[in-house]
Amino acid sequence: MIIVWECEIKSKEFYKKRLMTQKNKISENKQLNFFIGQIENELKKIKYTNDTFGRESEDIILSHLKQKLEKELKHNILNDNSFKFIDLFCGAGGLSTGLEQAGLLPDLGLDKDKSSLLTYHFNRPFLKEEQIINDDIKRITKDFEFKKTPLVVGGPPCQGFSNANKQRKENDERNQLYKFYIHTVDLSSPDVFVLENVEGILSHFSQIQNDFAQINYSLFPYRLNTKDFGFPQNRKRVFILGINNKLSKISNELNSIFNKAILTEKDKFNFTLWDAISDLPQLKAKSERNTTYLESDEWGFTFGKVKINSSKYSNFINQVNDLKFPLLNHKSKFNNTRDIQIYSLLKQGEGSDSKSIADINPYLNREDIFKDKFFKLLPNEVSKTITAHMYYDCHMYIHPFAARGLTPREAARIQGFPDDYLFLGSPNEWYRQIGNAVSPLLGRILGKALNEILNRIYEY
Fold first, then answer.
1. Residues 251 and 343 in one domain
2. Which of 116-120, 201-205, 408-412, 448-452 has the lowest mean pLDDT?
3. Are residues 300 and 352 in the same domain?
4. Exposure of 287 by Cβ count < 10 A (0-12 exposed, 13-18 middle, 19+ buried)?
5. With bands split at pLDDT 50, 70 and 90, how would you rate the model's confidence at 92?
6. How far is it, in rounded angstroms, from Cα 260 to Cα 7?
7. Are residues 292 and 420 in the same domain?
8. Is 58 domain-assigned?
């Protein structure tokens, strides 16, 4: 009788597991079909100036994207033992990408911007609908129940703190969004958090420190610049590490571990702008106005031909050698004849004050914007900071050898996004998503440091 009973129990467990596997498979197929449907809808919008892309080419693109999605759908199962995190103001997912590459796992993404969240979710298809929140954090924190988590990360919109904001106001509403970040930290009670922002936030640090002390967290600020790690961009940011006061006995040790993990990553590389983008196909500026979805060999494509990415830099950002994948989001922005002429006349490293464009510079009498309006990038140096202003124009990001601005894919390369990372929304929204993102390369370094201190915490 005992043997029969054991067999019955095993049988029940077997069928229960099989049922769960079937349910998971149905759920995965549903998720997969949803994301493939998104791509098919994007492809329907696009028109081509020639016969470069037929149905056969689109089928190849869909096949590669489907394989990526199927692989990503398994991601949370394979990494179920990873430390999980909540990403507030997650945007398109730059910080999350870096943390994932370091072995951490996103559990929830929140952002107000719909197109950014479409991008965030597409590149993390393993996240369920309830783990993606498209809403204002000011409303969410009133009635949403955040579960306990080891880690919270995120960067409240930074324009209010930015030194570039010449009309900055002390009581700028955007400066107060970090208070909703604080409230979310209080609700989810993480062991540690990381708050990212521009350098201007440090002028408010005493107040922020006091605010977090009210919910029992100690703060440790870090000024980091991507170029100090050998990455191809001059991008200064502040990352504030917060440690729960329940860990006060080891908080200094944790901060020391975090600091050491970051310092050991400095000066390992020496990538330039040209290292980052030289292997991408050469394009011309788009010359036809109001043709957002018209694409060609000259202007580039949303979903380009399959390409083998084999440069030292592409292997580094992709974390795999010789990635074979369709070229995504590599298309130029429209420029009028005058701007294209300005782009052509400027030499590398020259800007708005160059004599070569004095006769045609439309901003010559606008001293408030004249100085920084145009700049042709230097190939053998790091890039200027990639910003969301590229949504409007790329005058400050002129390609070093072509009379055009950088493409979204070139900007994404400089930031350190993998080549199979697809940006959704309109082409201008791609620029905004990329410019607002934390560099995934810096996120990867932070992720390694966070993994080390979380492992120490759970040994404690």
1. no
2. 201-205
3. yes
4. middle
5. very high
6. 54
7. yes
8. no
Domain membership of residue 294 as a residue range? 273-436
334/256 Cα distance (integer angstroms): 49
**What CATH number did the domain enclosing 314 receive?**
3.90.120
Helices (H), 46-112: 55-73, 75-78, 94-101
Indicate if 224 and 335 belong to the same structural domain.
no
Number of domains in the chain: 3
Q: Are residues 332 and 264 in the same domain?
A: no
The rounded mean pLDDT for the chain is 89
Work out the number of other CB atoms within 10 angstroms of the CB of residue 52.
13
Q: For residues 74 and 93, state if they share a domain.
A: yes
Residue 4 pLDDT:
45
Q: Is the pLDDT of residue 341 over 90?
A: yes
Between 94-101 and 440-459, two packed helices, what is the crossing angle to 10 degrees? 50
Based on the domain organization, do 204 and 343 belong to the same domain? no
Under the banding of pLDDT at 50, 70 and 90, the label for residue 12 is low
Q: What's the CA angle centered on 78, arms 7 and 97, to 5 degrees?
A: 160
Instruction: Mark whether 260 and 117 lie in a shared domain.
Output: yes
Is residue 23 in a domain?
yes
Farthest-apart Cα atoms in the chain, separation: 99
What pLDDT shows up at residue 2?
Answer: 43
Query: Looking at beta carbons, which pairs linking 251-258 to residues 24 or more positions away fall under 8 Å?
Result: 251/218, 253/456, 254/192, 254/453, 254/456, 254/457, 255/220, 257/449, 257/452, 257/453, 257/456, 258/220, 258/449, 258/450, 258/452, 258/453
Closest CA to 384 of 349, 409, 356: 349
CATH, residue 454 = 3.40.50.150
The reported pLDDT for the residue numbered 122 is 97
pLDDT-based confidence at residue 166 (cuts at 50, 70, 90): very low
**For the whole model, what pTM was predicted?**
0.91
